Amino acid sequence: MLTTFLGLPNSTNPKITFIPICWERSTSFIKGTVNAPYEIIQLSNQLEDWDYQTNIDLSSVPVATSEFLFPSTDASEGLKSIATTVFNIISRSETLPVVIGGEHSLSIGVAQALKDKGERFGFIYLDAHCDTRKIYQKDHFSHACTARRIFEQSIPIAPIGIRAFSLEELNFLKEHSIPFTTADKLKLDFWEKEVESILYHMPNKIYLSIDFDFLDPSVIPCVGTPEPGGIGWKQAISIIEKIIRRKEVIALDFVELSPRETLKWGTYTATKLIYKSVNIWLKKENRDGS
Q: Of 42, 45, 166, 172, which has the maximum CB count within 10 A?
């Protein structure tokens, strides 16, 4: 059984560190996100080391995969554990943390770790849902409250691709002048201008969070809260590439996969999305001479 992404050996000075966080405490529909990191790591064995589109060979890049983290389901303890783990990793070396979740609320802990390091950044999240509820199902740290808790840390936020949100959330976005765009607008010819407008209003440094339900269920069906009307594979890659090229992405996370044996291909697609995103980031680093 694999314990590292792609089965690659752990470098002592990694450019990228994959951080599997098995956390599920508030999933409100299809449970199983706690199993996603393990399933993704296992299926990464099916990927090629070399990506022909970016011409990046991950086996030639110093990377590492941290030990699997199983935080407490108590919100306070769990988030503290996540923040401490990520902080310890990013403090040891200049490495890009790539968090593999787990439910979306883990992003609150990752954001705290980046703040503790002294980073000033914005939080862009590709998601079917707004995740800005004040409280959901009597839980202030529900996955549906993730972006609001991060916003309350004085971190600018911007959702891209939302298509299921409450009137409360829409009013919150408008009240605080938060830039956002819906999946419907991304399907129009001017989608690049929509994304550019959001990037214009955000800081240069970005923590990019990718909820797998951003994509249409026909592409990745096994998610915690599937929502029809999402983005296709090719456009998702284009949007991720645009963000990475235009901004300095200092952290990535991938969340809300709920693996099922009968939908193994969906988990494989999610794994490939992580692989592609990392390679796009590396290509930019190589181009910039970093």
A: 172
